[in-house]
Design goal:
Heat Shock Protein 90; 297 residues; 7 helices
């Protein structure tokens, strides 16, 4: 493509001997030029070069359009998959919960365990579908982010309360924490909630037996707020730390733990989209601390 004036490359023939005037040709949209007197070999070489460049541009545009069509098809497929799987999974979860609530006294211990396994498997499928949908939208650049000033405390409280059953299941103590009621941050509350769910669930699942979790909050000198989640798990070695934010990465010592391997990747992308960041420190045998930083309001 010649300059920004059109799709057809333009070759100028000029008698200008002033460099500045020849450079001006490019601002007019000229792709290339030859200077009089014309040498046939030079003219042919420059024409061939422009033709090859145009062919490369057209092919690049075609491949770009092909990729965009493929991306749209992928997103449409994932959206349909999300809907088609959510409907039966929610039905299974609903009936499983109803059976446990209405008929618990009539079920044997084994039957209760079977129903619990059905619920857990259904929840895992829904988590996988939601994570794949989120990462696909992020990669396509169509994820919705609605940043506004929000009180931090209720978002954290909602996230903690949602995961209290999981903490009880793993016998993990989420210690009392303090976040000033007046503290506000500039975030998308839905995306921040999703980030906290990922971080807290990891701190629970990868903790040691009868371990604990600390939630710490402080304001930074750069105008950000840091929220830290500290666990008492096994911690991470250098190799695990290096690949931590890679999609579908699973820790070797936690291979038996259900998960998609996308939680931290999604959390990292969400924090960047909210003008924040996520980071961590960890030592093998000494637990891990993950924190997020977000702009204060």
């Amino acid at each position: 493509m010649g300059g920004e004036k059109g799709d057809v490359p333009i070759l100028a023939i000029t008698a200008f001997d002033d460099v500045a005037r020849r450079i001006e040709l490019f601002y007019l949209g000229i792709s290339d030029y030859v200077i009089k007197p014309i040498l046939e070999e030079e003219l042919l070489a420059r024409v061939r070069h422009l033709i090859k460049g145009q062919q490369f541009y057209v092919e690049s545009l075609r491949q770009k359009q092909k990729a965009e069509i493929a991306d749209l098809a992928k997103l449409e497929f994932i959206a349909n998959m999300n809907h088609e799987l959510h409907t039966p999974m929610n039905t299974i979860l609903g009936f499983s919960t109803r059976i446990m609530d209405d008929s618990a006294d009539n079920l044997t211990v084994d039957q209760k365990e079977y129903i619990q396994e059905i619920k857990q498997a259904s929840e895992h499928v829904l988590e996988l579908v939601d994570d794949i949908t989120n990462i696909s939208k992020i990669e396509a650049g169509i994820v919705d982010i609605n940043i506004k000033e929000e009180h931090l405390s209720p978002i954290v409280e909602t996230s903690v309360n949602q995961l209290m059953p999981l903490a009880s299941k793993y016998n993990i103590d989420i210690q009392p924490y303090t976040i000033p009621d007046s503290l506000q941050v500039k975030v998308d509350p839905l995306r921040l909630h999703q980030v906290l769910i990922h971080l807290l669930s990891n701190a629970i699942k990868y903790n040691k037996k009868k371990g604990s979790i600390q939630i710490l909050c402080k304001s930074l000198a750069n105008g950000s707020v840091r929220l830290s989640i500290k666990d008492t798990g096994d911690g991470l070695n250098e190799a695990e730390q290096k690949n931590l934010f890679q999609p579908f990465n699973r820790l070797e010592h936690g291979s038996e733990i259900e998960g998609t391997g996308l939680g931290l990747v999604i959390s990292n992308r969400f924090m960047k989209l909210m003008n924040g960041k996520i980071d961590f420190k960890s030592s093998k045998g000494q637990g891990s601390t993950f924190w997020i930083e977000m702009p204060s309001a």
